């Protein structure tokens, strides 16, 4: 692998503030004003308002711009964001991979994009058929008999699985006694939060030296008051929990349920069926495993598959096939089972359903298997290529993501945040930082299966050069970074603790200060 020769140039100051095609852009409130509009409107005639004391005391203070100004403003803002369309997005635990444009084309087909959840089912038979087929393949890939499609994201699907477990425990008359949920210390932060939300007591399980659940410690915590375990596999350290079947068997022996966080299903899809591992409930992030876009407000989708022990408690609504076509079971009186209720007002994220099924049908069973294999291959390529200069937190091989800590930066005066900021100057979005919490100064890298070897080689060479620079004492490259981004480093602590959430004019700000 050839090392890159660094190219450095001082930024020239210009009259406009623009740097060639890197265009400076002010806030929309700074470039527009409330006394003008980009649209010619007829004068509003005098009317008698019917809102009474609910009438707004003043006009909305919205900036007026011409149509080209508004369009250019948002285009310029979009160019300041990193995206998977612009380059490698190495966030660990987030699976930021290429979203095929075929998915988008399918999601925009009439009959999927322009339907309404209150339409009669007779007019949306195609959409219901798609939901039924998606449910079939999710159940096939996991070897689970039931799936709830309605959860809107990973944490929502996680809540769904735990609500089904709670309903099953309540049906057994054990809700007062089974109050403890076991959660590994490397779990996603939503896991203990979900358990606590449902009234359970969270009991942490330590990890062993290999970064996996300490089996002996787990067995010591078992008892007839255990409701469930919430375990991620592959776990947040990017490692497969090798004792998962033994964990499931021991848990079931004391009457508990196994919830698996399926955020990392993309590492095992087509290779392992969670149902074969003894899992009772698992959410699946369609927006990760099956490529649909996520982040920045979503939308996400987190269908939850359920085992035989929990299938009867699946929430409403769900699709059924009959002689006259497809129908929706939306009321408990229509169900022969014991649904715990419903998670959302309607049926879930239709656009995500279309994109996910499009991805599945494009790949086929052999293609989905290769997705997992290539994701694991790429992550291990990163791990093997960097472990001589960066500190791998655990011995490989890893699964879909490679985890490093800040041990290699010791004595350099540079920390994980500095290292990440320097990556921005090199054109990369930083990897996930300081997560998982069980590793000091964590750097979690997930290349996904969609990146080529050439792309990974350049990324690896860049990180190696950053390590070289840190060891050579070139601290300003890190502590001053980013220098080439549209904005310099922010005071992130102050921004988090004292956010400015409302635009104020200079006069308002001065009055507030007084």
Automatic annotation (TrEMBL):
Keyword line: Oxidoreductase, Pyridoxal phosphate
Record's keyword annotation contains Oxidoreductase: yes
Domain Glycine dehydrogenase C-terminal, chain residue ranges per copy: 373-474
Domain Aminotransferase class V: 168-295
One term under GO cellular component: cytosol
GO molecular function, one term: glycine dehydrogenase (decarboxylating) activity
Catalytic activity entry: N(6)-[(R)-lipoyl]-L-lysyl-[glycine-cleavage complex H protein] + glycine + H(+) = N(6)-[(R)-S(8)-aminomethyldihydrolipoyl]-L-lysyl-[glycine-cleavage complex H protein] + CO2
One Gene Ontology biological process: glycine decarboxylation via glycine cleavage system
InterPro entries: Aminotrans_V_dom, GDC-P_C, GDC_P, PyrdxlP-dep_Trfase, PyrdxlP-dep_Trfase_major, PyrdxlP-dep_Trfase_small
Membrane-spanning intervals of the chain: none
E.C. no: 1.4.4.2
Superkingdom field: Bacteria
Function: The glycine cleavage system catalyzes the degradation of glycine. The P protein binds the alpha-amino group of glycine through its pyridoxal phosphate cofactor; CO(2) is released and the remaining methylamine moiety is then transferred to the lipoamide cofactor of the H protein.
NCBIfam families in the record: PRK04366.1
The name this protein goes by in its record: glycine dehydrogenase (aminomethyl-transferring)
Organism encoding this protein: alpha proteobacterium IMCC14465
């Amino acid at each position: 692998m050839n090392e890159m020769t660094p190219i450095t140039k001082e930024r020239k100051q210009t009259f406009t503030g623009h740097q060639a095609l890197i265009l400076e852009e002010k806030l929309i409130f700074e470039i527009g004003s409330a006394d003008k509009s980009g649209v010619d409107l007829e004068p509003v005639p005098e009317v008698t308002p019917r809102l009474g004391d609910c009438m707004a005391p003043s006009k909305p203070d919205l900036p007026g711009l011409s149509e080209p100004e508004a369009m250019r403003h948002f285009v310029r803002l979009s160019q300041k964001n990193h995206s998977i369309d612009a380059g490698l997005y190495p966030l660990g635990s987030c699976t930021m991979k290429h979203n095929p444009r075929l998915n988008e084309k399918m999601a925009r087909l009439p009959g999927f994009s322009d339907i309404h959840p209150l339409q009669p089912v007779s007019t949306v038979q195609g959409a219901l058929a798609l939901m039924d087929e998606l449910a079939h393949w999710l159940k096939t890939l996991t070897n689970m008999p039931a799936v709830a499609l309605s959860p809107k994201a990973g944490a929502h699907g996680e809540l769904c699985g735990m609500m089904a477990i709670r309903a099953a425990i309540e049906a057994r008359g054990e809700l007062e006694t089974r109050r403890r949920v076991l959660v590994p210390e490397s779990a996603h932060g939503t896991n203990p939060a979900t358990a606590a939300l449902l009234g359970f007591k969270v009991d942490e399980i330590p990890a062993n030296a290999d970064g996996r659940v300490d089996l002996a410690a787990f067995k010591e915590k078992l008892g007839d008051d255990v409701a469930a375990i919430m375990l991620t596999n592959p776990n947040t350290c990017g490692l497969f929990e090798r004792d998962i079947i033994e964990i499931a068997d021991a848990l079931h022996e004391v009457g508990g349920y196994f919830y698996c966080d399926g955020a990392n299903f993309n590492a095992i899809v087509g290779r392992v069926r969670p149902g074969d591992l003894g899992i009772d409930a698992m959410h699946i992030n369609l927006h990760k495993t099956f490529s649909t876009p996520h982040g920045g407000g979503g939308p996400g989708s987190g269908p939850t598959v359920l085992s035989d022990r929990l299938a009867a408690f699946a929430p409403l609504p769900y699709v059924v096939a009959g002689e006259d076509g497809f129908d929706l079971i939306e009321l408990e009186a229509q169900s022969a089972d014991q649904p715990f209720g419903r998670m959302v007002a309607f049926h879930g994220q239709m656009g995500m359903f279309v994109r996910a099924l499009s991805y599945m049908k494009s790949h086929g069973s052999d293609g989905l298997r290769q997705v997992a294999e290539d994701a694991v291959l790429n992550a291990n390529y990163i791990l093997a290529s960097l472990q001589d200069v960066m500190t791998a937190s655990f011995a490989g091989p890893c699964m879909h993501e490679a985890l490093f800590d800040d041990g290699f930066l010791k004595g350099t005066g540079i920390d994980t945040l500095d290292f990440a900021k320097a990556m921005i100057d090199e054109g990369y979005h930083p990897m996930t930082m300081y997560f998982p919490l069980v590793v000091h100064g964590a750097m979690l890298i997930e290349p996904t299966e969609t990146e080529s070897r050439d792309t990974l080689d350049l990324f690896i060479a860049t990180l190696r050069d950053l390590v070289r620079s840190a060891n050579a004492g070139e601290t300003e490259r890190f502590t001053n970074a980013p220098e080439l981004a549209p904005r310099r480093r922010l005071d992130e602590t102050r921004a988090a603790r004292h956010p400015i959430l409302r635009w104020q004019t200079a006069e308002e700000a001065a009055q507030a200060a007084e």
